[in-house]
Design brief:
The structure is a single chain. Helix 7 packs across helix 10 (259-268). This protein has helices at 11-15, 18-27, 42-45, 62-79, 91-99, 132-137, 164-176, 201-214, 229-243, 259-268, 278-283, 299-302, 336-339, 343-358, and strands spanning 2-6, 32-38, 53-57, 83-86, 104-108, 119-121, 184-189, 218-223, 251-252, 271-275, 290-293, 312-315. It has 359 residues and is of the alpha/beta class. Helix 12 links the parallel strand 11 and strand 12. The chain folds into 2 domains: 2-142, Rossmann fold; 164-358, 3-Layer(aba) Sandwich (Rossmann fold). 37% of the residues lie in helices and 16% in strands.
């Protein structure tokens, strides 16, 4: 049997599909499994032992996208897949699913796209408190005699393989930056894809300063996306100034990290703190304790999907009538679902999570 999975767009969304990959191989161990993904998120599934063929597409625009998708459609048709699951549900992924000509094409029952699939699964509209892993798992239930009705985070955690070369490389970079194996390493991700998920810089400064000042053996690595590197530099500089010259070295600069390197650094760390973005879900593929900051999104939908025994805390502001939202326009105008989340609460949660993991 030849199976194709299609999941376009964001890193975290691709991470949430990895439990499904393992379940398919568990049920169909002899199946040839292909995965179609965009370039930015490809490292999540590259090296996955259950994926036999990784199809990576770029971000072309306009007529180039039409040309590239036509070529891709012909390639997919030649593969003669038996089963295709559209894990995305967008117009592009639905058309690519249809283009395969597979006898079984499974997707969500969405207006304007349902006719492109042979089997459709209901997906409730709106932002319901149901985890994204479970929503995608629903597609498996359209497979005849599918044996596992619900995923289990202990049995089916999110997964991204460790990369030994990246581990060696980041270990060397951390050593050059003065980090020793005896140090308590903490990763704080200060970036977000849009302002709705961006905790204020001043709050990050307070958090980083407090974590670094607590004990002399702590070392803090600030990670960010390309668009927020300047913000990360400002936060690091402000925290070093508050710590003073004697402790400024506890804020570590180990250079830019790609996804594979970031996972290696997080796996070595004692704690990860960050918003509901791709790196949070990369962190969930490790055993590292996590403190997640949720603004317009619900932890019930996107909290780390992994063994419940691993230390994890999810923080959000309660009682806001505008939360959750679709992140298109902030009704109050001040992004209060994150701007009103106090640094003291995050600092306390970080310390408690560190203590819990130590125990």
């Amino acid at each position: 049997m030849k199976i194709l999975l299609i999941r376009l767009r964001l890193i975290g969304d691709v991470v949430f599909t990895t439990p499904l990959i393992g379940a398919l191989k568990r049920t169909y161990p002899n199946a040839h499994l292909s995965y179609l993904v965009e370039r930015d998120a490809a490292p999540v599934v590259a090296g996955n032992p259950h994926v036999d063929d990784l199809i990576v597409i770029g971000k072309s625009r306009g007529w180039r996208r039409v040309r590239d998708d036509a070529r891709l459609a012909m390639r997919l048709r030649r593969e003669r897949f038996d089963l295709v699951l559209d894990l995305h549900g967008g117009p592009r992924s639905a058309l690519l699913t249809f283009a395969t000509g597979a006898p079984r094409r499974i997707g969500y029952d969405i207006k304007g796209r349902r006719g492109l699939y042979t089997h459709r699964v209901h997906r409730a509209s709106g932002l319901h408190p149901r985890h994204s892993v479970v929503n995608q798992w629903d597609l498996l239930t359209a497979i005849d005699a599918w044996p596992e009705p619900l995923p289990d985070p202990a049995r089916d955690p999110v997964f991204m393989p460790a990369n030994p070369a990246a581990t060696r490389h980041t270990d060397a970079r951390l050593a050059t930056a003065g980090v020793t194996p005896a140090d308590t390493l903490i990763v704080v991700h200060v970036s977000a894809g849009n302002p709705f998920r961006r905790w204020p810089e001043g709050a990050f400064v307070d958090l980083v300063t407090a974590l670094a000042a607590r004990t002399a053996d702590r070392r803090i690595v600030l990670s960010s996306g390309p668009s927020d590197r300047a913000a990360a530099a400002r936060i690091a500089q402000a925290a070093r100034q508050q710590l003073g010259s004697a402790a400024a070295h506890r804020i570590v600069d180990c250079g830019e990290l790609n996804l594979v390197e970031l996972r290696a650094v997080i796996a070595r760390s004692r704690l990860f703190v960050g918003g509901d973005t791709g790196p949070l879900h990369i962190a969930a593929t490790t055993a590292t304790p996590i403190v997640g900051l949720y603004g317009p999104t619900l932890a019930e939908r996107s909290a780390p999907w992994r063994d419940p025994h691993l230390a994890t805390a999810s923080l959000f502001v309660e009682g806001l009538p505008c939360r959750p939202c679709d992140q298109r326009a902030c009704a109050p105008g001040d992004f209060r679902c994150l701007t009103s989340l106090p640094a003291d609460a995050v600092i306390a949660a970080a310390e408690q999570t560190l203590e819990r993991s130590a125990q």
